[in-house]
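FIELD: query
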Amino acid sequence: MKHLIIGAGAAGISAAHRIVKEKPQDRVTIVSEDREVYSRCMIHKFIGGERDAASINFINDDLLANKNVEWISGVTLTRLDGAAKAVYAGDKLIATGDTILIATGSVSVTPPIGELKTAKNAFGLRHLSDARSIAEGAKKAERIAVIGAGLVGLDAVYGILEQAEKLGRKPQITVIEMAPTALAINLDAHAAEAYQRLFEARGVTFHLGSKVIDTKGDGAGNITSVELEGGTSVPCDLVIMAVGVRPAAAFLEGSGVELTERRAVKVNDYLETSLPGIYAAGDVAGLSGIWPNAQKQGEYAAYNMTGTRWAYDDRFAIKNTVNFFGLLSLSLGAINPQEGDEVLIKEDRNNYRKLILRGGVPAGVILQGEIGGSGFWLQLIKDKIPVSGLGKSPWKVSYADFYGLETNGEYKWVV
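FIELD: result
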């Protein structure tokens, strides 16, 4: 049997590993736009010079040297023939499979503003090729504009600061964000402000609640300033766009694979698409934006591709980890309360902890500083386990409150 995997990211490589293990005689073909395998979570470290391309490769075995595994790299697919289970680049047939896994991840969104889509000195940050371009441009740029103060945007800024320190440079970095705070989808305003202060202490300027409306250029394809609503002009030699991503599903148009309203691939509980034998996992399936979930989805899809029926039921993906300048934060579930929620906050010099209770059930938690015990909170939030009737502060609740003993001495879950 032959399996075709489209994408060499977390989901695709995880699936390949599982297929090789479950069905060592089956053939696996991996087709990817990328020419290298790398962790997207680490590309900001590439910009900063802390890691090279080899050290962010997350394959730690000889998968790609396996005689039954073929990797076709550097190919941008333009079409999937769902009926024939074949993929094309233009008119060229690239590969076929008895089963297919779509694991193409997501692509950066480029706002249709000014010359952002066409400028030679404007880049997204999604691929290692983007990181290479940014790292090279940042070596010379005196003024850098970063559009987006989410995790990707601040990752880029952090990498540039690391690089600049090594090179003895001090470029002027300006971060522009439409939301009123940085890291608006990752943390609440209080936790995000702690990071903003750390970046500002290193010379970074923030324009929050600001909208980019135009760009100005030099007539030779380079942006020289980013124009903001209200009249502010941000001069720049390099522009980094980090305003969001969308599923990398453009090549599926006309394939018969059904997409959701958000243009992600629609899958059932077995990660199978609307076409039998064709599966999807990771960002392109819209189930999760976090690395461990994408790996797990790839593995479950592989089980189903090789004949074992495994339902994927872990749809919880509201988990964010942030770590800049040694300050570590974790958020799970809701980060801002709704009307009627109870909010409990604990704070000292080194820690900030926020718990949102919805009807006595944890709906979200933010841990900044010390993040121990996060697995416990994840389970409470995912499984909607009430904590208000235990006769103690929710902050003092532990696993011990939910376990009892069987007559034979074994622990049992008692909720």
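FIELD: remark
Residues 151-167 form the longest helix (17 residues).
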